Protein backbone atom coordinates (compact mmCIF):
# COMPACT_ATOMS: atom_id res chain seq x y z
CA UNK A 1 0.00 0.00 0.00
CA UNK A 2 1.43 3.38 -0.88
CA UNK A 3 1.79 6.01 1.78
CA UNK A 4 -0.11 9.16 1.07
CA UNK A 5 1.10 11.38 3.83
CA UNK A 6 2.99 10.85 7.02
CA UNK A 7 0.17 11.73 9.32
CA UNK A 8 -2.20 9.18 7.91
CA UNK A 9 0.33 6.46 7.32
CA UNK A 10 0.21 5.91 11.04
CA UNK A 11 -3.42 4.96 10.95
CA UNK A 12 -2.64 2.17 8.52
CA UNK A 13 -0.70 0.17 11.08
CA UNK A 14 -2.77 -2.78 12.08
CA UNK A 15 -5.58 -1.62 9.88
CA UNK A 16 -7.90 -4.47 9.10
CA UNK A 17 -11.19 -4.59 7.36
CA UNK A 18 -14.11 -5.66 9.48
CA UNK A 19 -17.76 -6.14 8.96
CA UNK A 20 -20.59 -4.97 11.07
CA UNK A 21 -23.77 -6.72 10.16
CA UNK A 22 -26.50 -4.21 10.12
CA UNK A 23 -30.02 -5.45 9.45
CA UNK A 24 -28.62 -8.42 7.57
CA UNK A 25 -26.46 -6.46 5.19
CA UNK A 26 -22.78 -6.81 5.65
CA UNK A 27 -21.35 -3.33 5.80
CA UNK A 28 -17.71 -2.84 4.94
CA UNK A 29 -16.84 -0.39 7.61
CA UNK A 30 -13.22 0.27 6.91
CA UNK A 31 -11.59 -1.21 3.87
CA UNK A 32 -13.74 -0.02 0.98
CA UNK A 33 -12.92 3.65 1.20
CA UNK A 34 -9.42 3.41 2.49
CA UNK A 35 -7.14 4.56 -0.34
CA UNK A 36 -9.50 7.08 -1.76
CA UNK A 37 -10.41 8.75 1.48
CA UNK A 38 -6.90 8.89 2.83
CA UNK A 39 -5.88 10.70 -0.32
CA UNK A 40 -8.51 13.33 0.02
CA UNK A 41 -8.73 13.21 3.79
CA UNK A 42 -12.36 12.33 3.53
CA UNK A 43 -14.63 12.07 6.50
CA UNK A 44 -16.71 9.13 7.63
CA UNK A 45 -19.73 8.58 5.48
CA UNK A 46 -23.03 8.28 7.25
CA UNK A 47 -23.36 4.54 6.85
CA UNK A 48 -19.99 3.73 8.33
CA UNK A 49 -20.56 6.25 11.10
CA UNK A 50 -23.83 4.57 12.08
CA UNK A 51 -22.14 1.16 12.09
CA UNK A 52 -19.17 2.40 14.06
CA UNK A 53 -21.40 4.09 16.58
CA UNK A 54 -23.39 0.90 17.01
CA UNK A 55 -20.21 -1.12 17.39
CA UNK A 56 -18.74 1.19 20.00
CA UNK A 57 -22.07 1.53 21.76
CA UNK A 58 -21.73 5.28 22.18
CA UNK A 59 -21.88 8.42 20.14
CA UNK A 60 -18.54 9.38 18.61
CA UNK A 61 -18.52 12.98 19.72
CA UNK A 62 -16.01 14.36 17.24
CA UNK A 63 -17.10 12.08 14.40
CA UNK A 64 -16.87 14.98 11.97
CA UNK A 65 -13.17 15.26 12.75
CA UNK A 66 -12.47 11.56 12.44
CA UNK A 67 -10.55 10.50 9.32
CA UNK A 68 -12.14 7.72 7.30
CA UNK A 69 -10.28 4.50 7.84
CA UNK A 70 -9.16 5.30 11.36
CA UNK A 71 -9.78 2.32 13.57
CA UNK A 72 -11.17 3.53 16.87
CA UNK A 73 -8.68 2.82 19.62
CA UNK A 74 -11.44 0.91 21.38
CA UNK A 75 -10.90 -1.76 18.73
CA UNK A 76 -7.14 -1.47 18.41
CA UNK A 77 -6.26 -4.53 20.46
CA UNK A 78 -7.17 -7.33 18.14
CA UNK A 79 -8.12 -8.10 14.59
CA UNK A 80 -11.67 -8.91 15.72
CA UNK A 81 -13.00 -5.53 16.76
CA UNK A 82 -16.48 -6.70 17.67
CA UNK A 83 -16.32 -9.62 20.03
CA UNK A 84 -18.10 -11.10 23.01
CA UNK A 85 -15.92 -12.38 25.85
CA UNK A 86 -15.96 -16.18 25.90
CA UNK A 87 -17.52 -16.49 22.44
CA UNK A 88 -15.62 -17.59 19.36
CA UNK A 89 -16.50 -17.28 15.68
CA UNK A 90 -20.02 -15.93 16.15
CA UNK A 91 -21.46 -13.42 13.65
CA UNK A 92 -22.44 -10.35 15.61
CA UNK A 93 -25.57 -8.49 14.53
CA UNK A 94 -25.52 -5.91 17.21
CA UNK A 95 -23.88 -5.14 20.51
CA UNK A 96 -26.53 -2.90 22.08
CA UNK A 97 -28.40 -5.11 22.66
CA UNK A 98 -25.88 -7.90 22.14
CA UNK A 99 -27.09 -10.31 19.47
CA UNK A 100 -24.91 -12.90 17.73
CA UNK A 101 -25.49 -16.12 15.79
CA UNK A 102 -23.35 -19.20 15.16
CA UNK A 103 -22.24 -20.26 11.66
CA UNK A 104 -23.58 -23.78 10.92
CA UNK A 105 -20.16 -25.46 10.79
CA UNK A 106 -19.41 -24.24 14.33
CA UNK A 107 -22.47 -26.12 15.60
CA UNK A 108 -20.90 -29.48 14.67
CA UNK A 109 -20.38 -30.60 18.30
CA UNK A 110 -23.01 -32.98 19.65
CA UNK A 111 -23.28 -30.79 22.75
CA UNK A 112 -22.89 -27.09 21.93
CA UNK A 113 -19.91 -25.63 23.80
CA UNK A 114 -20.32 -22.29 25.60
CA UNK A 115 -18.13 -20.47 23.10
CA UNK A 116 -20.50 -21.42 20.26
CA UNK A 117 -23.87 -20.77 21.87
CA UNK A 118 -25.71 -17.83 20.27
CA UNK A 119 -26.64 -14.72 22.22
CA UNK A 120 -29.94 -12.89 22.01
CA UNK A 121 -30.36 -9.97 24.38
CA UNK A 122 -33.37 -7.66 24.28
CA UNK A 123 -31.85 -5.17 26.68
CA UNK A 124 -28.50 -4.52 28.30
CA UNK A 125 -26.92 -7.44 30.09
CA UNK A 126 -26.44 -6.90 33.81
CA UNK A 127 -23.00 -5.72 34.94
CA UNK A 128 -20.93 -8.80 35.93
CA UNK A 129 -20.61 -7.51 39.53
CA UNK A 130 -24.40 -7.79 39.84
CA UNK A 131 -24.25 -11.48 38.96
CA UNK A 132 -22.48 -12.72 42.09
CA UNK A 133 -23.98 -16.20 42.72
CA UNK A 134 -23.45 -15.87 46.48
CA UNK A 135 -25.80 -12.86 46.52
CA UNK A 136 -28.37 -14.08 44.00
CA UNK A 137 -31.97 -14.51 45.08
CA UNK A 138 -35.11 -15.77 43.37
CA UNK A 139 -38.50 -14.45 44.40
CA UNK A 140 -41.64 -16.49 43.75
CA UNK A 141 -44.79 -14.37 43.87
CA UNK A 142 -47.91 -13.50 41.83
CA UNK A 143 -51.70 -13.58 42.37
CA UNK A 144 -51.78 -17.36 42.23
CA UNK A 145 -48.85 -18.01 44.54
CA UNK A 146 -50.06 -19.32 47.91
CA UNK A 147 -46.98 -18.43 49.96
CA UNK A 148 -44.66 -15.98 48.24
CA UNK A 149 -41.06 -16.73 49.10
CA UNK A 150 -37.54 -15.53 48.30
CA UNK A 151 -34.84 -18.18 48.03
CA UNK A 152 -31.11 -17.67 47.76
CA UNK A 153 -29.34 -19.51 44.97
CA UNK A 154 -27.68 -21.61 47.66
CA UNK A 155 -31.07 -22.62 49.11
CA UNK A 156 -32.34 -23.41 45.67
CA UNK A 157 -29.40 -25.75 45.09
CA UNK A 158 -29.75 -27.38 48.52
CA UNK A 159 -33.52 -27.79 48.75
CA UNK A 160 -34.32 -29.32 45.39
CA UNK A 161 -33.15 -32.31 43.41
CA UNK A 162 -30.70 -31.59 40.57
CA UNK A 163 -31.35 -32.62 36.98
CA UNK A 164 -29.10 -32.49 33.93
CA UNK A 165 -30.66 -32.48 30.46
CA UNK A 166 -29.43 -31.58 27.01
CA UNK A 167 -32.00 -29.23 25.46
CA UNK A 168 -32.29 -27.18 22.29
CA UNK A 169 -32.53 -23.43 22.70
CA UNK A 170 -33.78 -21.77 19.50
CA UNK A 171 -34.87 -18.19 18.91
CA UNK A 172 -38.31 -18.00 17.27
CA UNK A 173 -36.81 -15.53 14.78
CA UNK A 174 -34.09 -17.95 13.62
CA UNK A 175 -34.21 -17.95 9.78
CA UNK A 176 -35.95 -14.56 9.61
CA UNK A 177 -33.56 -13.16 6.98
CA UNK A 178 -35.13 -15.23 4.22
CA UNK A 179 -38.65 -13.80 4.46
CA UNK A 180 -39.82 -11.36 1.84
CA UNK A 181 -41.07 -8.73 2.32
CA UNK A 182 -38.51 -8.67 5.11
CA UNK A 183 -39.54 -8.45 8.73
CA UNK A 184 -37.76 -5.98 10.96
CA UNK A 185 -35.60 -7.37 13.74
CA UNK A 186 -32.38 -9.34 13.81
CA UNK A 187 -31.80 -10.91 10.42
CA UNK A 188 -30.99 -14.40 11.67
CA UNK A 189 -29.78 -16.88 9.07
CA UNK A 190 -29.52 -20.35 10.64
CA UNK A 191 -27.46 -19.75 13.77
CA UNK A 192 -29.98 -18.73 16.45
CA UNK A 193 -29.89 -22.24 17.89
CA UNK A 194 -27.75 -24.45 20.10
CA UNK A 195 -28.05 -27.51 22.31
CA UNK A 196 -25.94 -27.44 25.48
CA UNK A 197 -26.38 -29.61 28.56
CA UNK A 198 -28.17 -27.78 31.36
CA UNK A 199 -28.08 -28.51 35.09
CA UNK A 200 -30.57 -27.16 37.57
CA UNK A 201 -33.73 -27.85 39.51
CA UNK A 202 -37.25 -28.48 38.28
CA UNK A 203 -39.35 -25.35 38.12
CA UNK A 204 -42.26 -27.53 39.31
CA UNK A 205 -40.50 -28.33 42.59
CA UNK A 206 -39.83 -24.65 43.26
CA UNK A 207 -43.35 -23.52 42.32
CA UNK A 208 -44.90 -26.24 44.49
CA UNK A 209 -42.68 -25.17 47.38
CA UNK A 210 -44.19 -21.68 47.10
CA UNK A 211 -47.69 -23.10 46.64
CA UNK A 212 -49.67 -23.01 43.41
CA UNK A 213 -53.28 -21.85 43.87
CA UNK A 214 -55.98 -23.70 41.96
CA UNK A 215 -56.68 -20.68 39.73
CA UNK A 216 -53.09 -20.56 38.36
CA UNK A 217 -52.91 -20.50 34.55
CA UNK A 218 -49.52 -19.03 33.61
CA UNK A 219 -46.08 -18.16 34.96
CA UNK A 220 -44.01 -15.11 34.03
CA UNK A 221 -40.33 -14.34 34.56
CA UNK A 222 -38.36 -11.21 35.35
CA UNK A 223 -34.62 -10.90 34.77
CA UNK A 224 -31.90 -8.56 35.97
CA UNK A 225 -31.10 -7.10 32.54
CA UNK A 226 -31.80 -3.44 31.90
CA UNK A 227 -34.25 -2.02 29.40
CA UNK A 228 -32.41 -0.39 26.47
CA UNK A 229 -33.58 3.01 27.67
CA UNK A 230 -31.76 2.43 30.96
CA UNK A 231 -35.08 2.97 32.79
CA UNK A 232 -34.89 0.61 35.76
CA UNK A 233 -38.67 0.48 36.09
CA UNK A 234 -38.99 -1.19 32.68
CA UNK A 235 -38.25 -4.82 31.76
CA UNK A 236 -36.51 -5.56 28.48
CA UNK A 237 -38.52 -8.74 28.25
CA UNK A 238 -40.81 -10.59 30.68
CA UNK A 239 -42.38 -13.62 29.10
CA UNK A 240 -43.63 -16.95 30.37
CA UNK A 241 -45.48 -20.20 29.70
CA UNK A 242 -48.83 -21.76 30.64
CA UNK A 243 -48.75 -23.54 34.00
CA UNK A 244 -48.98 -26.94 32.27
CA UNK A 245 -45.67 -26.33 30.51
CA UNK A 246 -44.12 -24.89 33.68
CA UNK A 247 -44.90 -28.14 35.53
CA UNK A 248 -43.30 -30.46 32.94
CA UNK A 249 -40.40 -32.68 34.05
CA UNK A 250 -37.99 -30.93 31.65
CA UNK A 251 -38.86 -27.33 32.59
CA UNK A 252 -35.77 -26.29 34.54
CA UNK A 253 -34.28 -23.40 36.48
CA UNK A 254 -30.63 -23.90 35.61
CA UNK A 255 -27.41 -22.75 37.24
CA UNK A 256 -24.88 -24.64 35.12
CA UNK A 257 -24.26 -25.29 31.45
CA UNK A 258 -22.02 -28.14 30.26
CA UNK A 259 -20.98 -28.66 33.92
CA UNK A 260 -19.60 -25.10 34.14
CA UNK A 261 -20.95 -21.71 35.11
CA UNK A 262 -23.44 -20.38 32.56
CA UNK A 263 -21.72 -17.71 30.42
CA UNK A 264 -22.67 -14.19 31.50
CA UNK A 265 -24.39 -13.37 28.19
CA UNK A 266 -26.40 -16.61 28.37
CA UNK A 267 -28.01 -15.73 31.68
CA UNK A 268 -25.69 -16.50 34.62
CA UNK A 269 -26.15 -17.28 37.41
CA UNK A 270 -29.75 -18.51 36.97
CA UNK A 271 -32.00 -18.94 33.96
CA UNK A 272 -35.04 -20.85 32.78
CA UNK A 273 -35.01 -23.52 30.07
CA UNK A 274 -38.26 -24.68 28.50
CA UNK A 275 -37.47 -27.56 26.14
CA UNK A 276 -39.00 -27.37 22.67
CA UNK A 277 -40.50 -23.90 23.09
CA UNK A 278 -39.41 -20.59 21.56
CA UNK A 279 -36.27 -19.52 23.45
CA UNK A 280 -37.83 -16.18 24.40
CA UNK A 281 -39.67 -18.10 27.15
CA UNK A 282 -36.33 -19.22 28.63
CA UNK A 283 -35.66 -16.17 30.81
CA UNK A 284 -32.06 -15.25 31.57
CA UNK A 285 -30.67 -13.70 34.79
CA UNK A 286 -33.96 -14.72 36.43
CA UNK A 287 -34.61 -13.13 39.82
CA UNK A 288 -38.39 -13.32 40.01
CA UNK A 289 -41.11 -15.69 38.83
CA UNK A 290 -44.78 -14.86 39.15
CA UNK A 291 -47.59 -17.41 39.21
CA UNK A 292 -50.43 -15.72 37.39
CA UNK A 293 -54.22 -16.20 37.40
CA UNK A 294 -54.27 -14.99 33.78
CA UNK A 295 -52.03 -15.11 30.72
CA UNK A 296 -48.85 -13.29 31.68
CA UNK A 297 -48.86 -9.75 30.25
CA UNK A 298 -45.21 -8.73 30.72
CA UNK A 299 -43.01 -7.00 28.15
CA UNK A 300 -43.10 -8.78 24.75
CA UNK A 301 -46.01 -11.05 25.70
CA UNK A 302 -48.54 -8.79 23.98
CA UNK A 303 -48.97 -7.05 20.61
CA UNK A 304 -47.19 -8.76 17.72
CA UNK A 305 -44.20 -9.95 19.77
CA UNK A 306 -43.52 -13.69 19.45
CA UNK A 307 -46.89 -14.23 17.79
CA UNK A 308 -48.04 -15.75 14.50
CA UNK A 309 -51.21 -15.06 12.52
CA UNK A 310 -54.05 -17.40 13.46
CA UNK A 311 -54.52 -18.17 9.72
CA UNK A 312 -52.19 -18.20 6.69
CA UNK A 313 -51.63 -14.74 5.21
CA UNK A 314 -50.23 -13.50 1.89
CA UNK A 315 -46.74 -11.96 2.16
CA UNK A 316 -46.96 -8.34 3.26
CA UNK A 317 -50.40 -8.61 4.89
CA UNK A 318 -51.05 -6.36 7.88
CA UNK A 319 -52.55 -8.67 10.48
CA UNK A 320 -54.75 -7.22 13.25
CA UNK A 321 -53.28 -7.80 16.72
CA UNK A 322 -56.33 -9.80 17.87
CA UNK A 323 -55.55 -12.34 15.13
CA UNK A 324 -52.00 -12.94 16.36
CA UNK A 325 -51.46 -15.95 18.65
CA UNK A 326 -48.56 -16.73 20.98
CA UNK A 327 -45.86 -19.03 19.61
CA UNK A 328 -45.41 -22.10 21.77
CA UNK A 329 -43.52 -25.14 20.42
CA UNK A 330 -40.89 -24.81 17.69
CA UNK A 331 -41.27 -26.65 14.36
CA UNK A 332 -39.22 -29.60 13.03
CA UNK A 333 -35.85 -28.48 11.73
CA UNK A 334 -32.30 -29.61 10.89
CA UNK A 335 -28.82 -28.31 10.19
CA UNK A 336 -25.92 -29.55 8.10
CA UNK A 337 -22.90 -28.89 10.32
CA UNK A 338 -20.29 -30.81 8.30
CA UNK A 339 -18.86 -30.12 5.81
CA UNK A 340 -18.65 -26.36 5.90
CA UNK A 341 -20.57 -24.68 3.10
CA UNK A 342 -18.35 -23.66 0.19
CA UNK A 343 -15.68 -26.37 0.44
CA UNK A 344 -14.29 -28.33 -2.51
CA UNK A 345 -14.41 -32.14 -2.50
CA UNK A 346 -12.78 -34.60 -4.94
CA UNK A 347 -15.15 -36.25 -7.41
CA UNK A 348 -15.76 -39.96 -6.79
CA UNK A 349 -14.51 -39.89 -3.20
CA UNK A 350 -16.89 -40.54 -0.33
CA UNK A 351 -17.91 -37.38 1.50
CA UNK A 352 -19.04 -37.59 5.12
CA UNK A 353 -22.03 -35.32 5.79
CA UNK A 354 -23.59 -34.79 9.19
CA UNK A 355 -25.65 -32.53 11.40
CA UNK A 356 -28.52 -32.35 13.89
CA UNK A 357 -32.31 -32.47 13.72
CA UNK A 358 -34.89 -31.43 16.32
CA UNK A 359 -38.55 -30.69 16.87
CA UNK A 360 -40.49 -29.01 19.66
CA UNK A 361 -43.09 -31.76 19.71
CA UNK A 362 -42.28 -35.48 19.80
CA UNK A 363 -39.08 -36.57 18.08
CA UNK A 364 -37.46 -36.63 14.65
CA UNK A 365 -38.20 -39.88 12.81
CA UNK A 366 -36.32 -39.49 9.52
CA UNK A 367 -33.69 -37.31 7.95
CA UNK A 368 -33.06 -37.29 4.22
CA UNK A 369 -30.33 -35.59 2.21
CA UNK A 370 -30.33 -34.60 -1.45
CA UNK A 371 -27.51 -33.71 -3.82
CA UNK A 372 -29.70 -32.85 -6.81
CA UNK A 373 -31.92 -30.01 -5.60
CA UNK A 374 -34.50 -32.34 -4.11
CA UNK A 375 -35.01 -34.62 -7.12
CA UNK A 376 -33.80 -37.70 -5.23
CA UNK A 377 -33.30 -38.20 -1.50
CA UNK A 378 -31.09 -40.53 0.49
CA UNK A 379 -31.97 -41.62 4.01
CA UNK A 380 -29.40 -40.63 6.63
CA UNK A 381 -28.54 -42.50 9.83
CA UNK A 382 -30.42 -40.79 12.63
CA UNK A 383 -29.69 -41.35 16.31
CA UNK A 384 -32.19 -41.03 19.12
CA UNK A 385 -32.04 -37.96 21.36
CA UNK A 386 -30.07 -38.22 24.62
CA UNK A 387 -33.31 -37.10 26.29
CA UNK A 388 -36.58 -35.42 25.24
CA UNK A 389 -35.94 -31.93 23.74
CA UNK A 390 -32.29 -32.65 22.85
CA UNK A 391 -31.37 -32.54 19.20
CA UNK A 392 -30.61 -35.78 17.32
CA UNK A 393 -27.46 -36.39 15.34
CA UNK A 394 -27.59 -37.63 11.77
CA UNK A 395 -24.91 -38.67 9.31
CA UNK A 396 -24.73 -39.77 5.67
CA UNK A 397 -22.19 -40.45 2.97
CA UNK A 398 -22.44 -38.84 -0.44
CA UNK A 399 -20.35 -39.09 -3.61
CA UNK A 400 -20.11 -36.32 -6.19
CA UNK A 401 -20.50 -37.89 -9.67
CA UNK A 402 -18.60 -35.23 -11.63
CA UNK A 403 -16.98 -31.81 -11.43
CA UNK A 404 -19.20 -28.84 -10.77
CA UNK A 405 -21.41 -27.00 -8.30
CA UNK A 406 -23.62 -28.93 -5.91
CA UNK A 407 -25.91 -28.19 -3.04
CA UNK A 408 -26.57 -30.54 -0.16
CA UNK A 409 -30.05 -30.23 1.25
CA UNK A 410 -31.28 -31.84 4.47
CA UNK A 411 -34.89 -32.45 5.41
CA UNK A 412 -36.23 -33.82 8.69
CA UNK A 413 -39.60 -35.37 9.43
CA UNK A 414 -40.95 -35.66 12.96
CA UNK A 415 -43.18 -38.14 14.77
CA UNK A 416 -46.22 -35.97 14.01
CA UNK A 417 -45.58 -36.58 10.29
CA UNK A 418 -44.50 -32.99 9.74
CA UNK A 419 -41.59 -32.35 7.33
CA UNK A 420 -39.46 -29.30 6.75
CA UNK A 421 -40.65 -27.39 3.70
CA UNK A 422 -38.20 -27.03 0.78
CA UNK A 423 -39.47 -23.53 0.12
CA UNK A 424 -40.19 -20.91 2.77
CA UNK A 425 -43.00 -21.74 5.17
CA UNK A 426 -45.84 -19.26 5.71
CA UNK A 427 -44.81 -15.63 5.64
CA UNK A 428 -45.73 -13.82 8.85
CA UNK A 429 -45.38 -10.18 9.88
CA UNK A 430 -42.55 -10.68 12.39
CA UNK A 431 -40.64 -13.34 10.43
CA UNK A 432 -40.86 -16.22 12.89
CA UNK A 433 -40.60 -20.02 12.58
CA UNK A 434 -38.71 -20.38 9.31
CA UNK A 435 -37.91 -24.10 9.26
CA UNK A 436 -37.11 -24.45 5.58
CA UNK A 437 -34.50 -27.07 4.58
CA UNK A 438 -30.90 -26.13 5.27
CA UNK A 439 -28.75 -25.99 2.13
CA UNK A 440 -25.00 -25.85 1.74
CA UNK A 441 -22.82 -25.33 -1.34
CA UNK A 442 -20.16 -27.86 -2.43
CA UNK A 443 -17.70 -27.73 -5.31
CA UNK A 444 -16.86 -31.07 -6.98
CA UNK A 445 -13.21 -30.98 -8.12
N1 LIG B 1 -33.83 -11.71 30.83
C1 LIG B 1 -33.82 -12.01 29.53
N2 LIG B 1 -34.13 -13.28 29.14
C2 LIG B 1 -34.11 -13.60 27.83
C3 LIG B 1 -33.82 -12.64 26.84
C4 LIG B 1 -33.48 -11.32 27.27
O1 LIG B 1 -33.19 -10.44 26.47
N3 LIG B 1 -33.49 -11.06 28.62
N4 LIG B 1 -33.89 -12.99 25.51
C5 LIG B 1 -34.75 -14.12 25.18
C6 LIG B 1 -34.65 -14.54 23.79
S1 LIG B 1 -35.59 -13.69 22.66
C7 LIG B 1 -33.90 -15.63 23.42
S2 LIG B 1 -33.86 -16.17 21.81
C8 LIG B 1 -33.09 -16.37 24.41
C9 LIG B 1 -31.64 -16.40 23.98
O2 LIG B 1 -30.85 -17.11 24.87
P1 LIG B 1 -29.25 -17.00 24.76
O3 LIG B 1 -28.88 -15.56 24.65
O4 LIG B 1 -28.71 -17.68 25.94
O5 LIG B 1 -28.86 -17.72 23.48
O6 LIG B 1 -33.16 -15.80 25.71
C10 LIG B 1 -34.43 -15.30 26.09
N5 LIG B 1 -34.40 -14.89 27.47
MO1 LIG C 1 -35.49 -14.93 20.62
Structure summarized in a few sentences:
By secondary structure, this protein is mostly beta strands. The protein is built from six helices and 28 strands. A hairpin with a 2-residue loop joins strand 1 (19-22) and strand 2.
Helix/strand layout:
Elements: H1 6-9, E1 19-22, E2 25-28, H2 34-40, H3 46-56, E3 91-95, E4 98-101, E5 119-120, E6 137-141, E7 149-152, H4 153-159, E8 162-166, E9 169-170, E10 193-194, E11 197-202, H5 203-210, E12 218-223, E13 240-242, H6 243-246, E14 252-257, E15 260-261, E16 271-273, E17 286-292, E18 307-309, E19 324-326, E20 333-338, E21 344-345, E22 350-358, E23 364-370, E24 378-379, E25 381-382, E26 392-399, E27 404-414, E28 438-444
Question: Could you please describe the fold and organization of this structure?
Answer:
- The structure is a single chain.
- This protein has two domains: 5-75, no CATH class; 99-445, Sulfite Oxidase, Chain A, domain 2.
- The strands form eight sheets. The protein has a five-stranded mixed beta sheet. Strands 8, 11, 14, 15 and 16 form a five-stranded antiparallel beta sheet that branches.
- It has six helices and 28 strands.
- The chain is 9% helix and 29% strand.
- It is mainly beta.
- It binds ligand MTE and molybdenum atom (MO).
- Molybdenum atom (MO) binds next to loops.
